Amino acid sequence: MNIRVEATRFDSLKTPFAVFPLTEEATSAIKLGKKTTLAPITKRVKACDFKGETGDTTLLYDPTPGMGRLLLVGLGKEKELTIEKYRRAGNTGVHHAKRARVQSLHVVAQPYAKVSEQEAAVALAEGLLLGGYDFDRYKTEEKEKRKPVKDATLVLGLLSTKIRDAVARAVIVCSNTLYVRDLMNESTSKMSTLDIAREAVRIGKKPLVRCKVYDEKALKKLKCNLLLGVGAGSKFPARMIVLDYVGNPGSKDTIALVGKGITFDSGGLNLKPTGYLETMRMDKGGAMTVLATIKCLAELKAKVNVVGVMGMAENMIGPGAQKPGDVVIGYAGKSVEIGNTDAEGRLVLGDCLAFVEKQYKPKAIVDLATLTGAVLVVLSEYGAGLVSTDDKLANALETAGTATGERVWRLPLYEEFLDDVKSDIADVRNVGHPKGYGGTVTAAAFLRKFVGETPWAHLDIAGTAWAEKPRHYIQRGATGYGVRLLVEWLTR
Ligand code: BES
Ligand code: MN
Ligand code: ZN
Fold it and tell me: Fewer CB in a 10 Å sphere around the end CB: N or C, the chain?
């Protein structure tokens, strides 16, 4: 979808379809005849049942002769107004347009209360772009009915370079969110460890980005045996991909992002049952978010240094597959008892975390992983679990989460969780409490063993990376969660 911005007088709009976000207060002012600035719709709003409650919609035909269809979208009470409501309003607009088979629409970026015209424009653009997504590349029938919205024009009272830049930035960030959705929704047959390495090499050709792919031989030399062990049952070899973005060459400081990249998680010999296998191509969500975030920073020409490390493997059953009870020594030199081959993410991350800390000495490390089913028990699909050794880092991520609507919720890192991952025969074991208690936090405790003094935060995105149930601007399937969050945190 192309997004444009335009300074147009609302009453001069001539469009096949326009969207107008309206609060309850503004609606009632119009109804009481107190608000005359919206002359073209005043009369019609007065006459209709629309009250401006959150999510309310009504469609007006030609409120002024020749104007076209005007969709009013309720934003609720001004006191309760949030930027997220504008995102949802943008999504509502794009869905109504699609249903009306309209491929070009105008959206009025109307500021209210504490939401500025710029914030309104950016949030509406986000709602349009994210809400307009449809993974339809395999739909060959009824193409006519699935026509996407092609052009959206944001209509503002006054247009500044600042607003233009902010919208252009949102377009880049959202396109990278959709890029993650595509990578994760796609069939595994097209998204092997090797396919993704190729994709990373392509991104590595962008200015200021460098890509390095570690193959089996290189990984063996580095003693990344935890990563290799997870991939040992697959016909696709494990890879560690490093994408290094140097947007601020004057500084030596860098931030590290680490992503779990399991192209398919069958569980390994601790095989997952039917009902749990079907969506496990999403288990590379952390790595795909890291990949897209580096790509996004490069496209934004952000003045930051960020190194992204992706641990790629396919967790399968095969003659070479690792087995429960095995002991493996990885990059960090710690011995790990494999208690369960389905707790593979923490193994992959163990090597990647230790590697990036030692090789890059980053100022902070943030890892993202679809790590535990337990985080779904805590936060459902609506928030990511955050575990951190550093309050400042955790707070910064929480702030970025609130700003973007990609929420995080901090969980503790008690000493007892570290006791739970102790092993009788090795330094550490990849499963925690014998009854499976504290699945998310014991997984985090395992990761903790592979990071030294560097401020570290872990985001468990097993719930947020994939939607079983569509909501607002998120369709069923991959959500692209994390790109907007990380870019916000890294660039503000
Ligand atoms: N990839 C899964 C976690 C997951 C579950 C992601 C559901 C998305 C939806 C992970 O590798 C896993 O299998 N975790 C196990 C760990 C257990 C064996 C200790 C889990 O959470 O059950
Ligand atoms: Mn697993
Ligand atoms: Zn997994």
Answer: C
382 vs 278: CA distance, rounded Å: 21
Closest residue to atom 3 of ligand 1, CA basis? 372
Q: Quick one: pLDDT band at residue 143, thresholds 50, 70, 90? A: confident
Domain assignment present for residue 167? The answer is no
Residue 430 φ/ψ, nearest 5 degrees: -85, 10
**In CATH, what number is assigned to the domain containing residue 40?**
3.40.220.10
Query: Which one of the ligands is nearest to 340 CA?
Result: 1
pLDDT in tens, 193-223: 999 999 999 999 999 999 999 999 999 999 9
* 410: annotated active-site residue: no
Rounded Cα–Cα distance for residues 154 and 107 (Å):
5
Write out the H or E segment, with its range, that includes residue 299: helix 285-300
Question: Which of 272, 363, 410, 422 is flagged as catalytic?
Answer: 272
What's the confidence (pLDDT) of residue 33?
86
How far is 358 from 332, CA to CA, in rounded Å? 9
- The answer to whether the CB of 342 is under 6 A from ligand 1 is yes
Answer yes or no: do 6 and 155 share one domain: yes
Which class for 195: exposed (0-12), middle (13-18), buried (19 or more C-beta within 10 A)?
Answer: middle
- Per-residue pLDDT at 40 exceeds 90: no
169 within a domain of the structure (yes/no)? no
> In terms of C-beta density within 10 A (0-12 exposed, 13-18 middle, 19 or more buried), how is residue 429 classed?
buried
261 and 378 fall within a common domain: yes
Beta carbon of 344 within 6 Å of any ligand 1 atom: yes
Residue 268 has pLDDT above 90, yes or no: yes
Contacts of 195 by beta carbon, 8 Å cutoff, 6+ apart: none
* pLDDT tier for residue 74 given thresholds of 50, 70 and 90: very high
CA of 382 to the centre of ligand 1 (A): 17
341, 424: one domain: yes
Instruction: Pull the structure tokens for residue 171.
Output: 């377009």
147 catalytic, yes or no? no
* pLDDT value at residue 391: 98
d(CA 72, CA 180): 31
Please state, rounded to an integer, the average pLDDT across all residues of the chain.
96
Can you tell me whether residue 292 is helix, strand or coil?
Answer: helix
Pocket flag, ligand 1, residue 343 (CB < 6 Å): yes
Burial readout 317-329 (b: 16 or more C-beta within 10 A, e: otherwise): eeeebbebeeebe
Inform me whether the pLDDT recorded for 54 exceeds 80: yes
For residue 121, the CA-to-ligand 2 centroid distance in Å is 41
Determine if ligand 1 sits within 6 Å of the CB of residue 283. yes
| 429 alpha carbon, closest ligand | 1
Residue where one domain finishes, among candidates 128, 159, 190: 159
